[in-house]
Amino acid sequence: MNRGNLRKQQEKFNTLHSRTRQTIERAFALLFGRFRRLKYLDMNRIDLIPGTILACCVLHNICLDFGDDLMREYVQEGMDAIVKNQQEQIIYESENKKRVGNERRDALCEELNRNDNRL
């Protein structure tokens, strides 16, 4: 969303970032719906999270190979769980975090723009 304070490059970056984020959210919703145990994954154990997600992806592909094709139901159930989880969490964003986030966004935006100009 541009409230008149973003440059064209930042707006383009935000659009691409949003599309990617939505794709990732749907993928995680599918996994959360299919593997309900993920809802209880200890997010403080960052060392365990990638392996657990990878294992779920492999198991998901095995399920598909054997004809389990209830993806629509899994995605809806997973999205419901994600929304509920987000509603239960209250996030206070400090100005410093917002500033750092804006700086990172701008750096990624500039890199994306440089790569576009090379093509």
Automatic annotation (TrEMBL):
Pfam families: DDE_Tnp_4 (PF13359). The keyword Metal-binding applies. Its cofactor is a divalent metal cation. GO terms for molecular function: metal ion binding. Residues 3-61 form the DDE Tnp4 domain. It comes from the Eukaryota. Keywords: Metal-binding. This is DDE Tnp4 domain-containing protein. It comes from Temnothorax longispinosus. The lineage of its organism: Eukaryota, Metazoa, Ecdysozoa, Arthropoda, Hexapoda.
